[in-house]
Amino acid sequence: MPHLTRRDFALGTTCLAGLAHAAASKRKISLISAPISLGLRPGGKGQEPGTWRSPEVLLAAGAADRVGALRRISLARPKYVFEPQPGTRIRNGHTLRTFMIELAGKVQTELAAGRFPLVLGGDCSVMLGCLYGARLAGGRGLVHIDGHSDFFHPGNYDTKARLGSAAGMDLALATGRGEALLTQWPGIEGPLVTDEDAVQAGERDAQQPDYKDYYADVQDTAITRLIIQQIQHDGIPRTAERILARLEERKLDRAWVHVDLDVLDEKVMNAVDSPGSPGFDFAQLSALLRALIGSGRVLGFDACIYDPDLDPGHRFARPIVECLADAVR
Questions:
Q1: Could you tell me which residues are beta bridge partners of residue 301?
Q2: Are 253 and 143 in contact (CB under 8 A)?
Q3: Rounded to a whole number, what is the largest CA-CA distance in the chain?
Q4: CB-CB contact of 47 with 91 (8 Å)
Q5: CB proximity list for 285: less than 8 A, separation 6 or greater
Q6: Contact 266, 314 (CB under 8 A)
Q7: C-alpha distance from residue 200 to each of 49, 61, 205, 250, 293 (Å)
Q8: Helix (H, G, I), strand (E, B), or coil: what is residue 72?
Q9: Digitized pLDDT (tens) for each residue of the chain, 329 residues in all
Q10: Residue 16 belongs to a domain
Q11: How far apart are CA 191 and CA 253, in angstroms?
Q12: Coil, strand, or helix at residue 210?
């Protein structure tokens, strides 16, 4: 990565501030609801996880108005199947592929019309449909903001012993690791994103002794990795500088941003399937997103994994909405 001083970055952002502000004021936001839980394991009592309800709860909390959405698009909720599907060792694999192709079409259409899609998931597997749609529209690159690397794939777990859950595999699948069912897509050569064009920001477990038993191989890839401990030490402005410098180095000016809300510290918001600490607070997350989106290098983003069933009274819905609204202002 080329050396980028704070002064260089400050001068660049100062020169572009007026243009970024103008672009933001004219940003035509489309809100796409992707109500799925297909990529998650069943809950503790054997029931479907509640992430499919996230879009409706966030919309009820004022999401459309707060982000200034000009258009609202809602996909139908697909059926969650508990049993393995024929020919795949990925939970709900065939249903996921069908849903992702539909979602990709919506994202591609909005981008082609010059709009900025904000996709409300659902579980993290929706990132695949978003990336696919972005690629079809000429986009390239991914910023994966997540408390976990989501890098499970057949090379690091026993596919015969258990079904794979796509929400824990999304970065691996996006970079071409896993079943062709969710790594090969019509009209796209190669993976949805190359390792070199992917940034993972927010992993919290990389310093744990057992990390090597799960995601160690991600450390041997060309994926740019910024763990949460490093981010907290450096601060949000410096982290944004580093991510944007990488996008510039790779000539990525139409990248997609994926946000798994479990990147928030569990003390701040714990209504997710895998809460943990350390993590962001809402202000830090919105500041990072605002810097990335304001750079003009981002064509859309998705926000996933909030589970209203784990949030009695939906007390986290409004803070999540305000975080997303702050990000696109």
A1: 118, 257
A2: no
A3: 57
A4: no
A5: 145, 259, 263, 264, 323, 327
A6: no
A7: 25, 29, 13, 15, 16
A8: strand
A9: 333 444 344 434 433 333 344 444 478 999 999 999 999 999 878 899 999 999 999 999 999 999 999 999 999 999 999 999 999 999 999 999 999 999 999 999 999 999 999 999 999 999 999 999 999 999 999 999 999 999 999 988 899 999 999 999 999 999 999 999 999 999 999 999 999 999 999 999 999 888 877 778 999 999 999 999 999 999 999 999 999 999 999 999 999 999 999 999 999 999 999 999 999 999 999 999 999 999 999 999 999 999 999 999 999 999 999 999 999 98
A10: no
A11: 18
A12: coil
Q: Is 305 left (phi over 0), alpha (psi -120 to 50) or beta?
A: left
CB 200 within 8 A of CB 144: yes
Residue 207, both tokens: 């310093």
Q: Is residue 13 part of a domain?
A: no
Terminal CA-CA length for the chain: 29
Separation CA 314–CA 55 (nearest Å): 12
Sole residue written with tokens 């993976």: 191
Token pair recorded at residue 103: 């979602």
Radius of gyration of the chain (CA): 18
Structure pTM?
0.92
Give the number of other CB atoms < 10 A from CB of residue 73: 17
| Assigned domain for 107 exists | yes
3-state secondary structure of 317: helix
Q: How far is CA 147 from the centre of its chain?
A: 11
- Residue 86's CB is within 10 A of a number of other CB atoms, namely 7
Which tokens in the block code for residue 199? 């940034």
Alpha-carbon gap, residue 255 to 211, rounded angstroms: 28
Amino acid at 197: D
- Domain boundaries, position 219: 25-328
Percent helix, strand and coil across the chain, each rounded to 5?
Answer: 45, 15, 40
Residue 59 located in a structural domain: yes
Q: What is the DSSP string of 16-68?
A: HHHHHHHHHHT--EEEEEE---TTS---TTS---GGGGHHHHHHHTTHHHHHT
Residue with tokens 């859309």: 300
Report the CATH number at residue 192. Answer: 3.40.800.10
Task: Report the domain count for the chain.
Answer: 1
